[in-house]
Design goal:
CATH superfamily of the largest domain: Spore Coat Polysaccharide Biosynthesis Protein SpsA, Chain A
Distance between the termini: 55 Å
Helix content: 55-70%
CATH topology of the largest domain: Spore Coat Polysaccharide Biosynthesis Protein SpsA, Chain A
Number of domains: 3
Length: about 700
């Protein structure tokens, strides 16, 4: 072979382009060994390494090429591909931006859009896809990915427009046909979706995803017989695949073939013994067939398996709630009543605690039907296992309790509140959390360190400490030291005397709502009220930005949930503007909480019961504030662009406190966050709450 470097490079490239990588690699390796500064050889050898999964070596080689020639756009673009393969998304985005600055190209804009979308920067990703399409209007993959990004942003009309343009360019492209059909299905157009999936299957008969979605779309279009034809073919090809068997079993149930559906669900139970879904669907199928007693028997068995450890012990109750909520949404409270009666009878003498939860649902149904006597009877029967039911008001009991509260109880509570430091707020909201001295030491360092990463400069955080310890002032001073973005203020109080250990813990859970009015009066700005054993993973201003005069309150709100009397509002995250209806609502909630505190009767769930009862009371009186529902996406709570995650069972895992200390140390010493999504993922992974 010639010793001319360019001739040797051309020979290597010829093998590379023809897919003969094993022949190309030694030629590249010899070239870079003989001529270490040969930038093109370094670059192309790096590309080959990336193609064969050796990304670290690819980054080394392409990095050396860039060091010798930083003006080659292709070097930066391929460096970005290796970085992305390594999960280093912010660096990959930076490399692509350098490539684009050197040579704007549709492929580079497309790759940057993909990196940004993967990093959770979906809105910016759509802009980069638009840039790619401006340079190359017939770029089908860019249109497909732009549509997916727009769909994720709930901009489905724009997504459909992109997919239809892509279809005009590539009318037989199965991916375009599939994505268009899927978007139309999500838009509530199952007949168009069916036609689209059929076209995708004609273009690619082996397109399994299109076949599976065709079955679902046919069910949505109320064509169960046609759906069964498709789904039976899928199962025949792979009879032991649960992801194929479950849709078939569900379709059989929807078609009224109950016994055949039950047989398929039993097969699923054997294939996936840890998955409670086939048990749930079996109960649903039996109830739909007018066989509530058999549905109850399924739930009893799920309860037994839960007690044995196969499922969570309350799985049977969760199945029951889901089924009841489905029937309520269909306007069939009679079916709910029949099912609950059967379940209560089936659990009698078998599992008193699960029977109590079913009795609670029976009482909740009676409340919906305005049958106070039946509700009170059901709650009384369940109360030995569910003591929080003593707090659930029936009829006008909330108003009567609030209005009968002695002035002395209010005065005693107000006198207990001590404001140590009220910090002048800036333009954003004030973040509020309450805890005892133990939780302050355990969780406040993480809480404040995460806020320090995401909040705008000058963010005020107010911590209310119940039962402070002698060292609490020193702890607060240490927490405030070295903060560049967050400015902590704090207050404290002693919990009322005479509370049991359980009642004292309950007091800690609702103290933030008890003091919300006093803090609103002092700060006079929007508030973000959270649990302290949590992480706020966005600038707090993002949570309050969507609030309006018509909807000044944001919280998790589930008014259609039969279990709503204690589970209709999630109190872990509340954003509010201090408008009169909001302040009036929380003042009556405060008085309700104080009334039980005065009696020294405080049971778990009282904080949630009070929120639901207070909102019901305000609605009954016609003064309820408008609510912006907080959404959930996996473990994340979302309000506008705000992101928040609760730490639940993770805090009980061995070694969790050490994990938190290491994470806090890392957050304190790390430089400024470059990319919020990547920073959020890093924190979630460290906490074990990802997904």
């Amino acid at each position: 072979m010639s010793d001319d470097p360019l001739t040797r490079l051309r020979a290597a490239v010829a093998h590379h382009q023809a897919g003969r990588l094993t022949e190309a690699e030694p030629l590249y390796a010899d070239l870079v060994a003989d001529i270490p500064g040969f930038a093109d050889a370094l670059h192309l050898y790096g590309v080959l390494c990336a193609q064969t999964g050796r990304n670290a070596r690819a980054l080394e080689l392409i990095g050396n090429a860039i060091a010798r020639n930083g003006n080659a756009a292709a070097y930066h673009a391929n460096f970005a591909r290796a970085l992305r393969a390594e999960g280093r998304l912010p660096e990959a985005a930076d490399s692509l931006r350098r490539a684009i600055a050197l040579q704007p190209a549709a492929d580079a804009f497309f790759s940057l859009g993909n990196v940004l979308k993967q990093a959770g920067q979906t809105a910016e990703a759509t802009e980069r896809y638009r840039d790619a399409l401006a340079l190359k209007p017939d770029f089908v993959d860019a249109r497909i990915n732009a549509a997916a990004a727009l769909d994720a942003l709930d901009r489905r009309n724009e997504a459909l427009a992109h997919l239809r343009l892509a279809l005009a360019t590539a009318p037989a492209n199965p991916t375009v046909l599939y994505n268009l059909a899927r978007t139309e299905q999500a838009f509530g157009a199952p007949d168009r979706a069916v036609a689209g999936y059929r076209r995708a299957l004609r273009a690619d008969p082996g397109f399994e995803g299109a076949a599976a979605n065709l079955g679902a779309a046919l069910l949505d279009a109320h064509r169960p017989a046609a759906a069964l034809t498709v789904l039976r073919r899928l199962v025949a090809a792979a009879p032991d695949r649960p992801d194929r068997l479950l849709p078939l079993a569900t379709a059989l149930a929807d078609a009224g073939a109950t016994d055949a559906a039950l047989a398929a669900f039993r097969r699923l139970m054997a294939l996936t013994p840890q998955d409670p879904t086939p048990w749930q669907r079996s109960a649903e199928a039996l109830e739909a067939a007018g066989r509530p007693g058999e549905a109850a028997a399924i739930l009893v068995e799920v309860g037994r398996l839960g007690r044995c450890g196969r499922f969570h012990w309350k799985t049977a109750y969760y199945h029951l709630v889901r089924l009841c909520n489905t029937r309520l949404a269909e306007g069939r409270p009679d079916r709910v009543a029949a099912l609950l009666s059967a379940v209560i009878a089936a659990w009698r003498g078998v599992d008193g605690e699960l029977q109590a939860w079913a009795l609670f649902l029976q009482g909740s149904l009676a409340v919906l039907r305005d049958d106070g006597d039946r509700a009170r009877d059901a709650f009384a029967a369940a109360r030995p296992y569910l003591p929080f039911l003593v707090h659930v008001p029936v009829g006008d009991a909330f108003a009567r309790r609030v209005e009968a509260l002695p002035a002395a109880a209010v005065a005693e509570s107000e006198a207990a509140f001590v404001a140590e430091s009220i910090v002048q707020p800036g333009s954003g909201p004030v973040v509020i959390a309450a805890c005892d001295a133990g939780y302050l030491r355990r969780f406040a360092p993480l809480y404040l360190s995460a806020l320090e990463r995401f909040a705008a400069a000058g963010q005020v955080v107010h911590l209310h400490v119940v039962d402070p310890a002698p060292d609490t002032p020193a702890v607060m001073a240490a927490l405030a030291a070295g903060r560049h973005r967050c400015r902590p203020g704090w207050s404290h109080e002693a919990a009322p005397a005479g509370l049991s250990a359980e009642a004292r813990t309950t007091y800690y859970t609702f103290a933030r709502f008890l003091r919300l009015g006093e803090l609103a009066a002092r700060y006079r700005t929007p508030l973000l009220v959270t649990d302290i054993d949590a992480c706020i993973l966005s600038d707090p201003a993002a949570f309050t930005a969507p609030l309006t005069e018509d909807r000044p309150l944001a919280l998790q709100h589930f008014p259609g949930n039969l279990a709503r009397l204690y589970d209709g509002i999630g109190g872990g995250l509340v954003a509010l503007r201090p408008e009169p209806p909001v302040l009036a609502l929380f003042d009556r909630i405060r008085r309700f909480l104080l009334s039980w505190t005065a009696e020294r009767t405080l049971s778990y769930f009282l904080d949630q019961v009070a929120l639901v009862a207070g909102l019901d009371d305000a609605t009954r009186r016609g003064v309820a504030p408008g609510i912006l529902p907080v959404r959930a996406e996996g473990r994340l709570f979302l309000c506008g662009e705000g992101r928040f995650v609760q730490i639940l069972d993770e805090k009980n895992r061995p070694g969790f406190d050490g994990t938190v200390r290491r994470l806090v140390d890392d957050l304190v010493t790390a430089g400024p966050p470059v990319e919020p999504h990547a920073e959020r993922e890093r924190i979630l992974r460290a906490l074990g709450t990802a997904g």
